[in-house]
Design a protein that fits this description.
Strand order of the largest sheet: 1-3-2
Shape: globular
Distance between the termini: 53 Å
Order of helices and strands: HHEHHEEEEEHHH
CATH architecture of the largest domain: 2-Layer Sandwich
CATH class of the largest domain: Alpha Beta
Number of strands: 6
Helix content: 25-40%
Radius of gyration: 18 Å
Number of helices: 7
Amino acid sequence: MDRRVTSSPDFAQLLRDAGLRVTRPRLAVLDVLVELAHADTESVIDAVRRQLPGVSHQAVYDSLRTLTAAGLARRIQPTGSVARYEARVGDNHHHLVCRDCGAIADVDCAVGEVPCLSPSDEQGFVIEEAEVIYWGRCASCTTGEAEHAPPRTSDPHHTPRQERHRRVRTR
């Protein structure tokens, strides 16, 4: 069943169709994920609290976990990054991640069919999905390199967050 969350969905019906109770925190989290693609947990909590000022951190965490398990949200965690959530589910897309600023963008699969890639040896597995993250530098970091980009590193999964931690440790 395609449970893709769109820009004007009936969130209550999506929750019911997934066999979930309709709660205000779940509705608010879905609304936030449609508005803030690739949001980290703290951003989701802040945005949900603008809608529901009394909501607890735990209610948002529980909603994210439940929505992800039900296939209504997707959790991604590029190496060196905190977990991010998105409402774009049920399709075959991947992500572009900027090594310098951490920006994340969606990119459709070039093949279009799941699993999109095939390993050279399936080792007895039945492949259901391939998750691809493309690493590079976004247009803003490429054009403004001298002004704001942190030092580059040879680590293929380096992020600015790691660089900040590295600087803190050496002081």
